[in-house]
Amino acid sequence: MVSVTFKVNGADVVMHAMEGDNLLAAAQRANVAIDAPCSGNGACGKCKVKLVSGELDSPQTRHISDEEYAQGWRLSCVSKLVSDVTVEVPDIASAYRSRMRVADISSEKELAIFNQTKAGIEEAGIEFKNNLSAVNVTMDAPTADDTMPDNERLAWKLEEVTGAEKVTISFAALKKLARVLRESDFSVRCVIETEGDRVNVLDVLPADDAAPVAGLVVDLGTTSVAAILVNMEDGSILAKASTGNGQIRYGADVINRIIESGREGGSERLQKAVIEESLRPLIQEMCAAAKISPKRVYRMCLAGNTTMNHLLLGLYAEPVRMDPYIPSFFLCDDVPVQALHLGLHPEAKLILAPNIGSYVGGDITAGAFASMLWNKEELSLFIDLGTNGELVFGNNEFMMSCACSAGPAFEGGDISCGMRATDGAIDSCTIDRETMEPSFTTIGDTKHPVGICGSGIIDIIAELFRAGIINGKGKFSREGRRIRHDENGMGSYVIAFKEDTGAVRDVSINEVDIDNFIRAKGAIFSATMTMLNSMGMDPSVLGHVYVAGGIGSGINMKNAVTIGMLPDIPLEMFSYIGNSSLSGAYAMLTSSQSREKVDELARSMTYLELSTEPGYMDSFVAACFLPHTDAALFPSVEV
Amino acid sequence: MVSVTFKVNGADVVMHAMEGDNLLAAAQRANVAIDAPCSGNGACGKCKVKLVSGELDSPQTRHISDEEYAQGWRLSCVSKLVSDVTVEVPDIASAYRSRMRVADISSEKELAIFNQTKAGIEEAGIEFKNNLSAVNVTMDAPTADDTMPDNERLAWKLEEVTGAEKVTISFAALKKLARVLRESDFSVRCVIETEGDRVNVLDVLPADDAAPVAGLVVDLGTTSVAAILVNMEDGSILAKASTGNGQIRYGADVINRIIESGREGGSERLQKAVIEESLRPLIQEMCAAAKISPKRVYRMCLAGNTTMNHLLLGLYAEPVRMDPYIPSFFLCDDVPVQALHLGLHPEAKLILAPNIGSYVGGDITAGAFASMLWNKEELSLFIDLGTNGELVFGNNEFMMSCACSAGPAFEGGDISCGMRATDGAIDSCTIDRETMEPSFTTIGDTKHPVGICGSGIIDIIAELFRAGIINGKGKFSREGRRIRHDENGMGSYVIAFKEDTGAVRDVSINEVDIDNFIRAKGAIFSATMTMLNSMGMDPSVLGHVYVAGGIGSGINMKNAVTIGMLPDIPLEMFSYIGNSSLSGAYAMLTSSQSREKVDELARSMTYLELSTEPGYMDSFVAACFLPHTDAALFPSVEV
After folding, report:
1. Could you tell me how far CA B349 lies from the centroid of its own chain?
2. CA-based angle A432:A436:A440, to the nearest 5?
3. Are B149 and A335 inside 8 Å of each other by CB?
4. Which of B182, B315, B335 is facing A178, going by the closest CB pair?
5. pLDDT one-digit tens code per residue, B255-290
């Protein structure tokens, strides 16, 4: 036995392990968060820790320079324990992953886009009505001549008031009933669920309780989690927040997460990570902002990709990634929320946006619904820029979907100064072609940029390319005060010097970042082309392109075309529709008609498996260039 | 602050309390079991503890003799803490309350009676069928051309096999589905619940799993808890067991329990006591005997009085005992068993036998059903001899019920050598009129009687009375080697000397025991008379009397008449029907028709409140005599 001390954020976590044990595995057992997006196979180089005392059997890998190795840096996934050891774990709260952000719902730009989306759904004649409501009733108090028990007394009154044929009282309501009735003189407010001529009482509150009947909407992404708290009775937004997915330290993409879930106890670890590190904190922050108890949340709708919803529910997910790629469910009956220990009302149910395949999940069915592409005659394309990029092409007669692995670059992952589109992120940028000096904007208009979100990266790459600072391969080809080269010759461009901004570090972009982003945009573009080609079509058929995702509302479509991410069609055909997965899930929660429609769309949507589609890999390789190896596809772009 | 050390069963429980705190309350906070059937009001004298060191501010009460006081005995409910103190807590596992007994289901006498009851129900044309079953299905494994998700694959197959229109898969089943399907080559055994043309899958097991689909039946009494584990598919008994109700230390009767439940945290304490000390151990013992996991129990039916079922569910019970005596429910929708933490299958539901009033509960509706009195033209009386005595009078046209407080004497409570009808209990006895020597039988035919159960007490009192050893007031009027008098002149009769039996104590009965029993039988007899009189009738109208309860199958009806407990009608009109509450709950669980019938009976049964009935108190006082102050009511009894 050896003793391992992890120094994390100023605290010591001490645990015991066997000699020969793997250091990363030991950290995971001790619930110490070490970043391991590749799930510990030595590929990503993110799980570096600094040896403070003791010894590790740990080779120097390509991810660790001589200087770093001499300083004590080791890759934990390749380190074996040989003695008592103390290691320092870097704070992995990189801005893009775990920072909690509670939105200012009076002014947030994303909420304006959300409201436009909602208006679009309403224009199509879809009602925003659901079957949860609160109703106030006053009963006669019992007497010696009127000894009806409490539950019948309430049911009888509710039948009278609501016209229901049958009223049932949930166990949670029954538990409180006797006390609440007597403490509030038989005048109560009931939270009810109406199903045809039946009413089920979820909760009983004193008549003067004015807190809203709340609902929770969650977009559960592989990298980011966004949520809104709503008033179920009028659909109004009570709070909005986002954070990182706590599972990220077990792998950056769905495949590595599934592999981890298949290990002993892995399924429980992943479920716990997303619930305890992401969902519960989100719920607590939003409820605090809205000044309500989480117990006032009576229903929840979640949209996430197929892997995310399997891992959230604690299901065995290996079959999702193994041929023939079979999930436990596409459409799932409502799940009792209590099983997830989120602290919501004990009778709350979870609605899941339906999946249509192992790699096209509820985020896409909800998002495609929100895009309203299914309601128009013109052919349109819906693109969700997430860790997986998913596309839906079609109109009011058919819909076809496909998925490609873009990686986390659109959300700022795999980018040295990348971050989610939250406060402090550079979200747009121009670069003077002569002086090479940038001017940029940040989310929240801060003077101290913290990093760069997806829309900012698109702008920077497009502008560097236009200014001839980088070439079509993304390599630096000019010199200047903002351009640097490291010992290996890797170039980078500094957007903001720390001296100028007072920030803790320079905000810059380097050739590896650009390369990662080029591969992400190449995946999206080649998926677009392969899907259109599979039907014998090309981008000229498109009437509209709806772009969704956490890339940031500042996305500049011209620049996205310039780097070859989006097809070269007239700019007015592009719309950024924000987090459509969240908007779609909101619609499913607050509008019964929307929910029916999403389930119907999911049943009719077809799926194109790109990996078996001829020409996809060639198309991808050809797209990994600025804007593309075939310049004829981008006539509007000056090369 | 003072430190309190409780010495319990050889262990020390140390806790801290404030000076001036009550010792009994401190013990209850520390979860130390001190017997307090009167709920700590100084009335019963059961909460004696022995002071080992330190001081207590504690008066000597009538329950503590000079000698006992000198030895350190104190009544904990009247003791105030004034210094650090160590007290010895007597082991309160009195035989009648907490001894777990697992029945030998191959031969138990009570089970023979149970089977007769079941046969009686079947003869009336009621089917023993319910909607739980197991069904084996084999599916095709998925392929690249057949990518249906697991839940649809199973639902589709079950629709084919069962003919159901709609199949839903519970969350518990969904959680296991992917793994079980793959580990058993897509051949599985499903535990299903059928509701019209819908099927709900509760569990998915490997096809070769042969464990039964189990159900649990519980008779939750104020003093005793009895349970059986059944096979839901064929109704066979898998195990049977009984134990004491762990709530008893918070009060012997329902009123004291409700008072305790109204104190801070009381409701949780009482719920925890019955679940952790009674139900979970019963379930574990029975499942161990039947060699199945408690997770294989998919449904549960419980019959208990109104207070017991409220306290089990953790409901606020004060309104049950306060004018106008309003329970939370009579009929209750099925309760999710998971909320009770019994360790059963997570999708299991609890069916409660319906109450009809605050003092006539599910034990009586289930029991009256099992008696079959509702199916006959003749007028009959059903008597359940529990801590509350409850009676139902009627036939196939009407049913009237009433309740009286008999105390725990019928189950051996409040009797110095009393015990439940389990192994070692004297269950029948005769006494030679000349020599005054007894001969007795014991349950389990042991040579070492441990105590006396209800049927034994009836026999002993009747025989002492016949032999002229006691008079009509229950006082000793003869002398002999088995008759003793203590310092206060209280007489007692020794049935078994410890020297003769090798037991740890003499088994005897004293005047206080006899007095307690006379009051219990007086309550039953006066209730009988008052109910008959309220309809202008007398015992001569009775065609049958069904006697039920934990009094023991050896009950001698002639002796019960002799002591004036049962009316003086021909002996062939009496039947002992055992634990009818348990039989009725068994029928409700295993037979859907029985459940409907019990609910229907509950709705039609009327309730007579004895306390407001003229003459009841006078009738009770008159009945507290052997056999009765009005000897004309018992012409067959020689006085």
Report:
1. 21
2. 60
3. no
4. B315
5. 889 999 999 999 999 999 999 999 999 999 999 999
Q: Mind telling me how many Å the CA of B546 is from chain A's nearest CA? A: 29
Identify the closest residue of chain A to B319 by CA–CA distance: A178
Among the partner residues B174, B315, B333, nearest to A328 by beta-carbon distance? B174
Q: Are A2 and A85 in contact (CB under 8 A)?
A: yes
Contact A174 B316 (CB under 8 A): no
Look-up of token digits 């604690």: A314
The C-alpha of A300 sits at a distance from chain B's nearest C-alpha, in angstroms, of 16
CA separation for the pair A194, A384 (Å, rounded):
35
Three-state SS letters, B303-364: EECHHHHHHHHCCCCHHHHCCCCCCCCCCCCCEEHHHHCCCCCCCCEEEECCCCCCCCCHHH
Give the separation between CA A24 and CA B612, rounded to whole angstroms: 75
d(C-alpha B15, C-alpha B19), whole Å: 13
B371 φ, ψ (degrees, to nearest 5): -70, -20
User: What pLDDT score does B504 carry?
Assistant: 67
What residues are paired with A426 via a beta bridge? A442, A452
Position B638 scores a pLDDT of 82
Residue B108 vs residues B305, B362, B370, B420: alpha-carbon distances, Å: 26, 25, 19, 15
**From residue B236, how far is each of B216, B290, B597 by CA, in Å?**
12, 12, 21
pLDDT tier, B97 (very low <50, low <70, confident <90, very high otherwise):
very low
Contact (Cβ atoms closer than 8 angstroms) between residue B114 and residue B578: yes
- CB B596 within 8 Å of CB B506: no
Q: Which residue of B has its CA nearest to A603?
A: B148
pLDDT at B142 over 90: yes
User: How far B402 CA sits from the closest chain A CA (Å)?
Assistant: 16
**Are residues A38 and A251 in contact, defined by beta-carbon separation less than 8 angstroms?**
yes
| Nearest chain B CA: its distance from A167 CA (Å) | 10
Are B168 and B200 within 8 A, CB to CB? yes
Rounded Cα gap, residues A383 and A529, in angstroms: 12
Distance from CA of A282 to the nearest CA of B (A): 24
Q: Which residues of A touch B355 (CB under 8 A)?
A: 149
Token reading at B639 = 């006085």
**Positions in chain A short of pLDDT 50:** 93-97
Pairing status of strand A399-405 against strand A606-607: parallel
Give the SS3 label for residue B394.
strand
Q: Out of A174, A324, A330, whose CB is closest to B144?
A: A324
- By residue count, chain A amounts to 639
**B147–A174 C-beta distance less than 8 A:** no
Q: Which of A147, A326, A329 sits opposite B147 (nearest CB)?
A: A326
DSSP A277: I
Picking from B181, B182, B258, B316 by the largest number of A CB atoms within 10 A of its own CB, the best residue to mutate is B316
For B63, the 3-state DSSP assignment is: coil
| A393: β partners | A381, A400
Count of CB contacts below 8 A, A vs B?
114
Q: How far off is chain B from A224, nearest CA to CA, in Å? A: 25
How far is C-alpha B298 from the chain's CA centre? 23
Of B152, B174, B328, the CB nearest to A149: B328
Given a contact cutoff of 8 angstroms between Cβ atoms, the answer to whether B403 and B254 are in contact is no
Residue B91 is predicted with a pLDDT of: 64
Both structure tokens of B439 = 């001969």
Instruction: Round to whole Å and give the CA distance between B531 and B534.
Output: 5
Encoded tokens for B467: 């032999």
Of the candidates A142, A149, A316, the beta carbon closest to that of B329 is on A149
Question: Which single residue is written with the structure tokens 């050809």?
Answer: A622
Which pLDDT score is estimated for B39? 65
Residues A77/A27, Cβ–Cβ less than 8 Å? no
